[in-house]
């Protein structure tokens, strides 16, 4: 089918190839070969279609991807590159051949093809399968000079995680980034960030390069620093990522380099904005400039004990897996992700220094970046690996308990929770596209969990920026689209109305000019417009909105350090199952509650929710204008009546405090008949027990 006359058939054929879970490595290698061997012509593999078994000739795999990558239509070439992105993780031998092909694809005339090729290379770096040779690097560095900024950005993203085997290749990479900066000064922040990452990923090469170039960086005889020179400034950024020992107060590069870097403080801090603030960076540079200088060999001997003990044999194990006849998808483990995106950053003394100054915020920012970087694995269908990693990140956040950063920790935990549920739904609804035949029990449970999590993020966090709100609204849209996979939801039209409401909020945020819309939002707008302008309902074309989910990507978020979390504490002393409260049937009871509120303003609409089996839920309004205390902490005692007394000898009552979810556009009202909007729980249910006589 990859040679079919129809373009659509060829595209779908490569899309299907990319979803293969288990495949013979021999067949994989044949898809990239130019000629079938005599052995291949005689080989057949069992296949199955419906209930009929038949034999598939191995020869049919020959030239499969070569045809796709040389297709005259760019959509077919993009589809072939995307399939390679998924299949390259099956074996190391196959991935090496893929790299050779993709380096040629980087010269493609189509921008979409080049972007997909770069995405495939980046995905391979996450799995440590990108083996770069010197001819490859020459070709790749040419992409850094491309006229399209998006191409240059994707290329830098690959370089940040690429492992360079030699000092010469490291120097080539640094020179390539410097040439880009000379040609495109507007890329300075991103180029400096890439230099910093490459430097800390190749510490020994970095020390050698900086020591060689130290004389060139020195001020002129007249005392002028002259750091407007692009190359000198780039070397100073590299020096910032050099290893130092805080314990021994030693540097592996001349300490004066850190003093010179202070002159570029504004430019460097702008490049490192997502990992360190300017004040901490200044303190770090000032501190390191006072350290002593030791030779690189002495320094690395001193620091050997800091290296991970199991860091060396991981790749060899993966290479041995390539000899197995049948290979399956490689698991992207927690160690792989953290080694690429956490430990190498954590080994940098700059980030260690940042952790000491602001441990919780730095931890949150790094973990949120990990979440963004593993999202492409989820889109490839690696649900088990991604879910495992997300839960590991949540466990790491769960060990943090700094009250001053409670809001940031809760935000990160809820964000990861939301992506975990979204990933589960994505896997079962988007990949299978058979939602009419699913058992909706587990899926409905995940939809409800996701909806509850997003409501908590939107309404219980104080101090959200417009970018944060935009991120949450995008997740709400994704949840709504997945909800519409249920026929009942399509027929109800409530979810569709909610989507329109959320889109209006997004348009309002974008209209203020501080936040740009995303491709995902644009595609959803197109789909909603198509639904509105046609007489047919969404039931006639349920895939229309679902297709827009292919454009969804989690937005990058950086903790501002100003978030506060709204929560409540509810206590009722002297009551338990063996010591119930007395009551008289048909008469109301009064409950004295000790309440403590955190970060809740007097404008918030709080309710005490009381529920009893077989009785309607009763709400009592809490008017915070009449209760003393400030918004940060408010502590008081409140007597609440309960009227729905059942005609029984004993019963239990569940009590909690809820917040009414009022959006910015909703009108505030003072009715006490119960909340008119959805609510979120501010505390866990407390159970009160009663015992009495029926009259």
From TrEMBL:
Which GO CC annotations does the UniProt entry carry? Answer: endosome; nucleus
Taxonomically, which superkingdom?
Eukaryota
GO aspect biological process, one term: intercellular transport
Question: Which InterPro entries does the entry link to?
Answer: ARM-like, ARM-type_fold, INTS4_C
Q: Where in the cell is it found?
A: Nucleus
- Pfam families assigned to the protein according to its UniProt record, in alphabetical order: INTS4_C (PF25458)
Q: What is its main location?
A: nucleus
Which keywords label this protein?
Nucleus
Q: Give the Integrator complex subunit 4/Protein SIEL C-terminal Ig-like domain ranges.
A: 576-691
The protein depicted here goes by the name Integrator complex subunit 4/Protein SIEL C-terminal Ig-like domain-containing protein
């Amino acid at each position: 089918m990859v040679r079919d006359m129809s373009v659509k058939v060829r595209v779908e054929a490569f899309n299907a190839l990319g979803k293969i879970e288990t495949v013979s490595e021999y067949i994989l290698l044949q898809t990239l070969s130019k000629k079938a061997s005599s052995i291949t012509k005689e080989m057949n593999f069992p296949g199955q279609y419906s209930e009929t078994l038949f034999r598939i000739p191995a020869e049919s795999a020959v030239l499969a991807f070569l045809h796709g990558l040389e297709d005259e239509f760019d959509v077919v070439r993009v589809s072939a590159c995307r399939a390679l992105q998924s299949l390259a993780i099956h074996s190391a031998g196959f991935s090496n051949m893929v790299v050779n092909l993709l380096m040629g694809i980087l010269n493609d005339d189509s921008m979409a093809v080049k972007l997909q090729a770069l995405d495939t290379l980046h995905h391979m770096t996450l799995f440590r399968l990108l083996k770069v040779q010197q001819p490859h690097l020459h070709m790749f560095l040419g992409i850094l000079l491309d006229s399209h900024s998006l191409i240059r950005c994707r290329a830098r993203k690959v370089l940040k995680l690429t492992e360079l085997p030699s000092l010469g290749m490291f120097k080539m990479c640094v020179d390539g980034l410097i040439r880009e900066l000379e040609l495109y000064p507007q890329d300075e922040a991103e180029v400096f960030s890439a230099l910093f990452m490459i430097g800390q990923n190749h510490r020994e090469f970095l020390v050698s390069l900086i020591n060689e170039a130290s004389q060139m960086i020195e001020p002129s005889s007249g005392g002028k620093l002259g750091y407007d020179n692009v190359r000198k400034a780039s070397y100073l950024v590299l020096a910032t990522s050099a290893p130092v020992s805080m314990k021994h107060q030693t540097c592996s590069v001349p300490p004066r380099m850190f003093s010179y870097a202070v002159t570029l403080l504004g430019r460097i801090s702008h490049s490192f904005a997502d990992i360190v603030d300017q004040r901490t960076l200044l303190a770090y540079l000032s501190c390191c400039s006072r350290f002593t200088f030791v030779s690189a060999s002495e320094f690395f001997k001193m620091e050997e004990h800091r290296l991970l003990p199991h860091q060396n044999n991981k790749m060899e194990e993966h290479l041995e897996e390539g000899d197995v006849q049948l290979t399956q998808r490689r698991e992207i483990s927690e160690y792989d992700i953290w080694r690429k995106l956490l430990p190498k950053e954590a080994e940098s003394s700059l980030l260690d220094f940042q952790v000491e100054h602001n441990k919780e915020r730095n931890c949150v920012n790094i973990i949120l970046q990990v979440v963004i970087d593993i999202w492409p694995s989820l889109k490839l269908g690696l649900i088990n690996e991604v879910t495992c990693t997300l839960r590991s990140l949540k466990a790491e956040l769960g060990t943090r308990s700094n009250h001053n950063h409670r809001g940031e920790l809760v935000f990160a935990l809820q964000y990861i929770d939301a992506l975990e549920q979204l990933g589960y739904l994505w896997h079962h609804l988007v990949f299978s596209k058979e939602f009419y035949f699913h058992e909706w029990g587990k899926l409905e449970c995940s939809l409800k969990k996701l909806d509850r999590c997003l409501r908590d993020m939107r309404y219980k966090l104080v101090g959200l920026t417009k970018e944060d709100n935009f991120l949450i609204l995008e997740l709400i849209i994704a949840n709504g689209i997945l909800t519409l996979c249920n026929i009942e939801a399509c027929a109800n039209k409530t979810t569709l109305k909610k989507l329109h409401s959320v889109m209006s909020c997004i348009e309002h945020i974008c209209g203020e000019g501080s936040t740009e819309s995303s491709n995902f939002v644009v595609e959803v707008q197109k789909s909603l417009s198509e639904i509105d302008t046609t007489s047919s309902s969404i039931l006639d074309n349920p895939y229309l909105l679902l297709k827009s989910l292919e454009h969804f990507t989690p937005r990058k978020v950086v903790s501002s350090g100003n978030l506060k979390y709204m929560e409540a504490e509810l206590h009722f002393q002297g009551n338990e199952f063996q010591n119930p409260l007395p009551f008289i049937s048909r008469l109301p009871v009064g409950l004295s509650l000790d309440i403590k509120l955190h970060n809740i303003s007097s404008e918030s609409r709080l309710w005490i929710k009381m529920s009893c089996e077989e009785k309607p839920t009763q709400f009592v309004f809490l008017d915070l204008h009449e209760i003393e205390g400030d918004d940060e902490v408010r502590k008081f005692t409140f007597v609440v009546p309960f009227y729905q007394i059942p005609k029984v000898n004993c019963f239990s009552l569940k009590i909690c405090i809820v917040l009414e979810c009022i959006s910015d556009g909703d009108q505030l009202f003072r009715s006490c008949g119960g909340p008119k909007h959805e609510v979120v729980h501010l505390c866990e249910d407390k159970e009160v027990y009663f015992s009495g006589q029926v009259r």
